[in-house]
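Hi D.,

Good news: the full-assembly prediction came through. Inputs first.
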Amino acid sequence: MEFGPGFWGPIVATIVMLLGAGFACLMLLGSRKISKVRPSIAKRSTYGCGEEVKPEEVIADSEQFYSPIRRVFKPFYRYIQPGHSGKLNTYLLWVVIGFIAILVAIALVLR
Amino acid sequence: MIEIPPIIAIVLPLFGAFLTPIIATISRRYDAERKVCGWFTVAITIAMLLTVASMGARIWGGEVIVYRLGGWSPPWGIVLAVDGLNLLIALIVAGVSSLVAIYSLVYMRRDTRIDLYCALLLLVTAGAMGITLTGDLFNLYVFFEIMSISSYALVAFRRKWDSVEAGIKYMIIGSLGTSLILLGIALLYGMVGSLTIADLAQKLGQIAPSDVVVPLALLVTGFGIKIAMIPLHAWAPDAYQAAPSSISALLAGATTTAGLYAMIRVVYMMFGAFGVGTIFAIFGLVTMVLGALMALTQRDLKRLLAYSSISQMGYILLGVGFGTALGFQGSLFHLLNNAIFKALLFMCAGAILYRVGTTNLDELGGLGKNMPITAGLFAIGALAISGVPPLNGFASKWTIYIAGIEAGKAVFSLIAIIMSVLTLAYFLKAINSIFLGQRPKRLQNVEEAPLTMLFPMMLLAVLCIVLGVLPSLGIDLVAPAQGAIMNQSGYIHAVLGGI
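Then the structure:
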């Protein structure tokens, strides 16, 4: 595997990325100086269904962080996640299933 | 030529483990037990790393170092044999163990029975090193047991209900795995009448492939449990979460690496079963996908990292499964990188746990202001594992993708790329939940992790950057290992010496 110019030049790419990041920082700082409109207090406050919520009281539920992705993979989460129940019996059953799957697969390949 | 470095590399941590309680008893009189035991462990692991490194020049020059125990020649005596593959894995095991030992100096400061911890840490290291360097199959099983039993005790070390439960689960599933390995070895011995890996490789070539199906399946399942290949992974999330973070780093960085080495050595170099590669590729794909999807929904950082470890092992299996030179190269490079960034991430989790007392993502937030160095190091590890250029994960994952395309399995590569995006997604969630956003009031006065803990983390982060910016360094490091896998006859000839 070659990691040189033409395929993937990591040093050149790193320099370009760092320059890009620096340029983005400069643009951000510049825009803050140029922009005169500041967000109002109402925009800065946390929306909590009409209730006043202090920023330090806001807790985002990490399990729901990617709920749309969870919806896409709903069948997976419905059947596979309950299998991770912590019950040792289930885990041992998985090992047995795994062994049988490996045995059958190897038998098919090496027959 | 001096052939003793392999035996020294095993004996050092093994005897160090037995010496630790004696040293602890003596130093307890001077109220210096904690410091003396900790530094003794650091000294032993660094001496082991230097011993392994001392073999580098000869091995990379194409030599295979063979040490005959008691002067007995194989196949009657036990041999230690070191080729390019052994050396790479031994360097990973010794390197991660040394950094974990340094990290533990401060991380385990609040725990009691530090002598027991240090002795068990050295035993795990000795077991992993023994697996890596031995040329005898039964010897490999014995070292596997040494490593596994010490790991069970370390997972349950803090004796809280969850760690004891995780330790017992790990012990039962792990013991089932080692029993399957023993059964596989017994069947092979019954068939061939030898236990030397090189001799077995020679003799198994004369047996019909259909006759070795059961022992091969037993061995693959046994090693599969150790590397947490789905569906044999169930012990891993509980064990990684409940163990002290230093031990999670060791399990993810060193012991799974040794397990994968055993799998490659046995399947490819002993059985010569390159046809089994497709099975590895499929199991690797399933492991990668399920690990990533499970990681996405976790609330606890260490549990998230555990599923991430499972997912990364999928990438490694995938590359191994392609069965091509480039596939092995990519896999071995990713194995090296995985040990680096996974140890780094678990150490970061340990730093958070040490300062805050929890790794529950819902109870954390805004820690980037309090722990900026840890935040930076975690971000480097997270971006590296997600395969973001110019970090090391990109180079190794890219090699695996290309290997898949060249092997005519472009769909596998495509799924692997999608899983990399998911990896980035769940790590961005972790970064956001821990270091960004609002900081709860009770975390206002949290301090940065101590320097002794930060030092090994910084070293690992530097490696993530260096191996990403200069990937040819990593490729050069793994090339002799890949060459060794493809050159089975060279290993057999070196060990048996023309028998």
